Amino acid sequence: MSKPDLNLLVTLDVLLAEGSVARAARRLQLSPSAMSRALARLRATTGDPLLVRAGRGLVPTPRALELRERVSALVRDGEAVLRPAEKLDLKQLVRTFMLRTSEGFVENFGPDLIARVAAEAPGVRLCFVQKPDKDSAPLRDATVDLETGVVGETMAPELRAQALFRDRFIGVVRKGHPLGKGRMTPARYAAGRHIAVSRRGLDRGPIDEALKPLGLERRIVTIVGGFSTALALARGSDLIASVPERHSGNLRAGMHSFALPFSLPKITVSLLWHPRLDADPAHRWLRGCVRDACAA
After folding, report:
1. Is the pTM of this model over 0.70?
2. Which CATH superfamily is domain 90-165+269-295 in?
């Protein structure tokens, strides 16, 4: 099988952007006949007409619409590879980065990250926005630059992901709580009054699935949308919060934490971004700052 001509990617990108053979020919400084021949080659290579006649113009086929963003990203990446590397002057950089993450992440890793950014690039501002769901649309439509979280099945396949750290769930109660003394057992843990954390309001999760084979069930008395809220409630009551250990480090100050007395898979918190920003020098620098803040 012959290898496809990768030069056709540039032609396809321009054709899909212009939606016109004549305009694409002018943009690539080709004759209309040469562009028509290139379109014929693209149709033969992809097995799809790509652009079809509609009145006096051309409209993209479903396959062309599917390819448009991917082809555009490939061409941009190729141009970035062939372009001389720009030296990033952090002291002169003026930019606002949007980071979509949880409140717990900001409260634990935000201070170090903000301090690092302020020291290296005083003209850069970080804007943290809430993460109510795992929808990839904000990264796709460029309203968000970076996101943190656990990679799920609903993540868009084209997104880049890099692991930041591994975390485990622990139990947390107020200082002086009865569970702060004595040996912790699954039965003792399950018998307490619990706070469930679920953005969707669900009353069951991985902890409940882990207790089921032991013949145990938690008594969940309230459901909240975030770990920081769960810890605030546990701090002022006899309720038990079960939260990620590293993710909640600063929030648990002055409280009693304990390892869960049963096996539960660890979670991996990752950094997510769209490939359009993969080669951007300022974005690469910010990703390094986030990684360093989490490693510290």
Report:
1. no
2. Periplasmic binding protein-like II (3.40.190.10)
